[in-house]
Design brief:
The complex is a heterodimer of chains A (about 400) and B (about 220). With about 400 residues, chain A is α+β, with helices and mostly antiparallel strands. Chain A has helices at about 5-20, 20-55, 80-85, 150-155, 185-190, 195-205, 225-235, 240-280, 285-295, 300-335, 340, 360-380, 380-385; strands at about 65-70, 70-75, 75, 90-105, 110-115, 130-135, 145, 160-165, 170-180, 190-195, 210, 210-215, 235-240. Chain A is built from 13 helices and 13 strands. In chain A, strands 1, 2, 4, 5, 6, 7, 8, 9, 10, 12 and 13 form an 11-stranded mixed sheet that branches. Chain B is built from 7 helices and 10 strands. Chain B has helices spanning about 45-55, 75-85, 100-105, 115-130, 145-160, 175-190, 205; strands at about 5-10, 20-30, 35-40, 60-65, 70, 85-90, 165-170, 195-200, 215-220, 220-225. Chain B is of the alpha/beta class and about 220 residues long. The chains are: A alpha+beta (about 400), B alpha/beta (about 220). At the A-B interface, α1 and α9 of A face α1 and α2 of B.
C-alpha cells in the first residue's frame, strides 16, 4: 500500500467532504482570510513606510542644526557655522533655506527647499532619486526639482513653468529640471527643491541667516560624538542626526503597526478559540460518520489525516487569499483602509503611494501566527473525534 | 471463515455504578461458509456478540479466534486492519452517509487502502451493476429509495471482498418485500462461499431456508435451538 496513494485518496475524500459542507467552510475561510488580510496589510504598510523613509534618507545630511527660540524653530545665523570650525571631524557646514508654500489654486501645501548644492558633498546622490530629468548645475538659478504631487498639480494647470508667489505677491517662475521617484514619495511627494538663492528670493529670507544648517561628517561613526559637541557649542540649537530621523520614522510606524497588530492578534486569537470550539465539539452527525468510517476499517490516523488536510486546505487557502488581497490593497489601493491609522494627515501627504516589498520572513511570521494556531486548533481536538468508538454506529446492546 | 469463541464475557462500565454485563461465558463456533442468525430481544447481548466477532471491541474475558487467529488481546490497530481485510459490515439503518454519492459510499472501505481511484471505481462499478444500482451511481445516497439503499449497503460490505459478512438487524426498518430481497442476496453470498452472521429477531430472517443455524441469546447467555 502506497502512503502517497493513501493520502491522495484521503485528500480526495476531504475535498468532497469540504464541498459537501461548502457554506460552512466558505464562511470560515472568508473570516480567516479577512483576519490574515488585516494582519498582512499592517505588516506590508509598516514595511513599505520604513523602506520608503529609509530610501529617502539616503541624501539627507548626517546632522541638521536648527535654532530654537521659545520652543519654536527660528532662522539660524550663518555665523553659527564659524563656531563649529573648531570641531574636528566636520567635513562641511551647508546652510539650507526651506519653508511651506500654500498653492491656492490646487489647495496643496508644498515644501520648498533651497539648497547650496555646490557645497553639498552628496549633491550627486540627488540624481539617484530622480525619476525624470536631472538635477541642474549647482548655483543655476530658476530651475526646480519637484515631487510627484507637485508635477500632477502642474499638469492639471496645463503649464510647464512652476510659478510661485513671493510674500509681496510678486510672481517668480521656475523651469522643472527633474521629478523625484515614486519610492521617495514619503519625503518628496510635495517637495520643491530650488537653489538656495532662489529660495531666499521666494521667501524673502535675509542673506545672513538660513532655516537650518546641514553638517556633513567625514566618519559616520563619529556622528553621535560630533552631534554632542555641536549641541554643547550651540546651546540654543536643536541638533538632529540622520539616525534619529530614521529612528523616529521606525518608532512612529512601528508603534502604530504594533498597536494595530495587537488589536488584530486579539481578533485572531478569538477566531482560533472559535475554531477550537468548533473542532472539539462534535455534532451527532459527525460522530456517526466517524464511527461508520472506523467500522469500515478506517484507522484513527486516517481520520486525523482528514482533519489535517481540512486544516491545510482551509488555512492554506485563507493564507494565500489574505496575503494576496493585502498586497493588492497596499500596492494598488495605497492601504486606503488603514491610511488614517498608519500615516496621519498632519505628517505625510495623503496622496502618498506605497510600494510594498515582499519579504519571506514577514509572510513566514504571519504564517506562524495564523495558520499554525488554526491547524493546532483543528487538528489537536481531532484526537477526540478520531477516538469516537466504532460500536456507536451499531444498534443496541 | 471459522469463528471460535470460548467463555467470552463482556462487561460495560466495569467497576462503576452503571456496570452492565452484556455477555456471560459465551462459547460458540461458527463454521466456514455458513449462515448463522443471532436472535434475541433488545438488550439481550446479540449486538455485543456481533461487535466482538467483528473486532469492534475486545471481550472483558475469554478467547476469540477467527480463521485460527487469536484476536482477543491484539491492539486496536491490528483489529482495525483485520476488520478492513476480512469483515464486511451491514448495519441497522444501513448507515449509509447521505451526503455522499452511491459510488462514494461503496468505495469508502477502499479509501484508506491506497488503491488507485480507477481501480476503486471499477470495483464499485462491478457491484453496482450486480445489484442494479448503476443508474444511481452519482446520486447522493440521501435521495435514493429504501431498496437501493439496502443494495448500496450490501455492495459496500462486499467491495473489498471479505470472507465474513456481519449484518446487524438488517431488516429492522424494511418492509417484507425488501426483507425477502435482502435474504435472497445473503443466500447468494453464502452460495459464493461467504460466512454470514446476522443479528435479528425477525422471523423472516430466522426462518429463511439459507440460515443454517439460529442462536438464541437471552440475558447475555446462549440457548442453542
Amino acid at each position: 500500500m502506497s502512503v502517497l496513494a493513501r493520502h491522495l485518496n484521503i485528500l480526495d475524500h476531504t475535498l468532497s467532504s469540504l464541498w459537501r459542507r461548502r457554506l460552512k467552510n466558505l464562511s470560515v475561510l472568508l473570516v480567516f482570510a479577512g483576519v490574515i488580510f488585516l494582519i498582512a496589510s499592517f505588516q506590508l504598510v509598516t514595511r513599505a513606510l520604513t523602506e520608503t523613509a529609509e530610501q529617502a534618507l539616503v541624501a539627507a545630511p548626517e546632522i541638521t542644526i536648527q535654532k530654537m527660540s521659545a520652543g519654536r524653530q527660528v532662522a539660524v545665523p550663518l555665523a553659527y557655522s564659524e563656531k563649529l570650525s573648531g570641531i574636528f571631524g566636520i567635513r562641511r557646514v551647508v546652510p539650507r533655506v526651506w519653508g511651506y508654500y500654500f498653492d491656492e489654486v490646487s489647495g496643496a501645501n508644498y515644501t520648498v527647499l533651497g539648497l547650496e548644492r555646490d557645497r553639498m558633498p552628496a549633491s550627486g546622490q540627488l540624481d539617484l532619486v530622480l525619476d525624470q530629468g536631472e538635477s541642474p548645475a549647482p548655483g543655476r538659478s530658476g530651475a526646480a526639482l519637484i515631487g510627484r504631487s507637485v508635477q500632477q498639480g502642474l499638469e492639471r494647470k496645463g503649464g510647464s513653468l512652476l510659478s510661485l508667489f513671493r510674500p509681496d505677491l510678486s510672481m517668480v517662475s521656475f523651469t522643472v529640471a527633474g521629478v523625484f521617484k515614486e519610492e521617495t514619495d514619503i519625503l518628496t511627494n510635495d517637495l520643491i527643491v530650488l537653489d538656495i538663492d532662489d529660495a531666499r528670493d521666494l521667501f524673502l529670507v535675509p542673506e545672513d541667516v538660513a532655516t537650518d544648517l546641514c553638517v556633513y561628517v567625514a566618519n559616520q561613526r563619529e556622528v553621535p560624538t560630533i552631534a554632542k559637541k555641536i549641541a554643547d557649542a550651540l546651546p540654543d540649537t536643536r541638533v538632529v542626526t540622520r539616525a534619529q530621523i530614521r529612528k523616529t520614522y521606525q518608532v512612529v510606524f512601528g508603534w502604530r503597526s504594533g498597536f494595530a497588530s495587537v488589536c488584530l492578534l486579539t481578533a485572531l486569537a478569538a477566531f482560533v478559540i472559535f475554531a477550537w470550539d468548533k473542532a472539539s465539539g462534535l455534532s451527532p452527525e459527525e460522530r456517526r460518520e466517524i464511527s461508520i468510517l472506523k467500522l469500515l476499517g478506517w484507522e484513527t490516523r486516517d481520520i486525523l489525516a482528514i482533519r489535517l488536510w481540512e486544516g491545510i486546505l482551509v488555512a492554506g487557502l485563507a493564507f494565500v487569499l489574505g496575503c494576496t488581497l493585502a498586497y493588492i490593497h497596499v500596492a494598488f489601493f495605497g492601504a486606503s483602509l488603514f491610511r488614517p491609522v498608519m500615516v496621519g494627515w498632519s505628517v505625510i501627504s495623503p496622496s502618498l503611494r506605497l510600494a510594498p516589498t515582499v519579504q519571506l520572513s514577514q509572510f513566514l511570521l504571519i504564517f506562524c501566527f495564523s495558520v499554525l494556531p488554526y491547524m493546532a486548533a483543528t487538528v489537536i481536538p481531532a484526537w477526540s473525534c478520531a477516538s469516537v468508538p466504532a460500536e456507536s454506529a451499531l444498534g443496541g446492546v | 471463515m471459522l469463528i471460535e469463541l470460548e467463555h467470552v464475557t463482556k462487561v460495560y462500565n466495569q467497576g462503576l455504578a452503571n456496570e452492565v454485563t452484556a455477555l456471560r461465558e459465551v462459547s460458540l463456533r461458527i463454521d466456514d461458509n455458513s449462515m448463522v442468525c443471532l436472535r434475541g430481544a433488545s438488550g439481550s447481548g446479540k449486538s455485543t456478540l456481533l461487535s466482538i466477532i467483528g473486532c469492534v471491541f475486545q471481550p472483558t474475558s475469554g478467547r476469540v479466534a477467527i480463521a485460527g487467529k487469536q484476536l482477543s488481546r491484539l491492539p486496536d490497530r491490528f483489529l482495525t486492519l483485520h476488520r478492513r481485510r476480512y469483515i464486511g459490515f451491514i448495519f441497522q439503518n444501513f448507515n449509509i452517509l447521505p451526503a455522499l454519492s452511491v459510488e462514494e459510499n461503496i468505495m469508502l472501505p477502499l479509501v484508506p487502502l491506497g488503491m488507485r481511484p480507477m481501480v476503486m471505481r471499477e470495483k464499485a462499478a462491478v457491484l453496482m451493476e450486480r445489484f442494479g444500482i448503476s443508474h444511481r451511481r452519482r446520486f447522493p445516497a440521501g435521495q435514493i429509495s429504501g431498496g437501493e439503499l439496502q443494495r448500496t449497503a450490501i455492495a459496500r460490505a462486499l467491495v473489498n471482498d471479505p470472507p465474513l459478512i456481519l449484518a446487524d438487524e438488517p431488516t429492522a426498518h424494511l418492509d417484507s418485500r425488501l426483507s425477502h430481497e435482502f435474504m435472497d442476496f445473503m443466500a447468494d453470498l453464502k452460495a459464493a462461499g461467504k460466512t454470514i452472521v446476522i443479528t435479528s429477531h425477525d422471523a423472516l430472517v430466522t426462518e429463511h431456508k439459507a440460515v443454517d443455524r439460529v442462536i438464541d441469546i437471552r440475558d447475555g447467555r446462549i440457548h442453542v435451538s
